[in-house]
Amino acid sequence: MRLQFALVLILVSLVVVNAQERTTAAERVDQVKSQLLELQGKEEALRARAAQLEEALKPENIERSLAGVGSTRPEELRETRRRQLTIERDGVLAQLRILENSRNRLETALREAEGRAYQESARQTPDATQALVAQSPASRRWLISGAIGLGALALMAGFIIYRRAIKLR
User: What is the tally of structural domains in the chain?
Assistant: First the structure.
């Protein structure tokens, strides 16, 4: 049982190593572009919310929002409402600053990824035979880890068959 568990663990770790192989530069460019689009959508939503809060912070709009509320101290109500809106606006502005920093980092990462993609495309060999001859270390690692994984799987299957044969006696 422990051997089976160990073999499964080895097999899973090999699959994880293969899944974590570096993506190509072109794939990285696509990933960064999609992250930038997502970030821009969030940024637009926050900018719209900030504009709403600025409008709501105007004294006449605070007065209008509390028109239906009766109180013996309307000044305190207005001040409380103004503080709530100010706190929310400050939070939205802080989120916008964070998103702006993230956007700057993503734009830098996009420029770097585009440069790598250009270099990668310039290094590509035109002939398929040359591509087979000039295998990268990553593809060799993948091939070796796949062979080890298949060997571990075969060993596990042999062990299971052996255990069943012993149980049948």
Answer: 1
